[in-house]
Amino acid sequence: MVVELLWWAGCPSTDRALAELREALVELELDDVRVRVSEIATDDEAQAVGFAGSPTILINGADIVAHNVEEQIGLSCRVYTRRDGRVSPTPDPADLRDALRRAAA
């Protein structure tokens, strides 16, 4: 399993997202999975990888939360909607764990 966190330097949520990702890996007994952390530094890089904002978590190259067409590709902070309807700067922990479970199966 390849897990990658894409981030942009202007976003303050990177550390929180990385901590939540590592916590989920430990809880699911996947703590041997290495997380690749990749900075997206330019608009050209963002366009090339379809970067929907920071932080973005990819598992085996797929975004764990499909971004909608209203989200622009580029250097920005990403906003997620949690299962309970609240907005958050990081993905819903349940969505993260579900995506990790699917990839590990």
Please, could you describe this protein's structure?
The structure is a single chain. With 105 residues, the protein is of the alpha+beta class. It has a single domain (3-104), classed as Glutaredoxin. The protein is built from 3 helices and 6 strands. The strands form 2 sheets. Strands 2-1-3-4 form a 4-stranded mixed sheet, with helices on one face. Strands 5-6 form a two-stranded antiparallel ribbon. α1 packs across α3 (93-104). It is globular and about 35 Å long. The mean pLDDT is 93.
How would you briefly describe this protein structure?
The chain is α+β, with helices and mostly antiparallel strands and 105 residues long.
Q: Which tags fit this structure?
A:
105 residues, alpha+beta, Glutaredoxin, 4-stranded mixed β-sheet, two-stranded antiparallel sheet, 3 helices, 6 strands, globular
Helix content: 25-40%
Form type: globular
Rounded to the nearest angstrom, the radius of gyration is: 13 Å
In angstroms, what separates the terminal alpha carbons? 10 Å
Beta-sheet strand percentage? 15-25%
Number of helices: 3
- Work out the count of structural domains: 1
- Determine the CATH topology: Glutaredoxin
| Largest beta-sheet details | 4 strands, mixed
Which whole number gives the mean pLDDT? 93
- How many beta-strand runs? 6
Give, in spatial order, the strands making up the sheet with the most strands: 2-1-3-4
Structural class: alpha+beta
Unreliable stretches covering 5 or more consecutive residues: none
The helix-strand sequence is EHEHEEEEH
Q: Any guess at the CATH architecture?
A: 3-Layer(aba) Sandwich
Oligomer description: single chain
| CATH class assignment | Alpha Beta
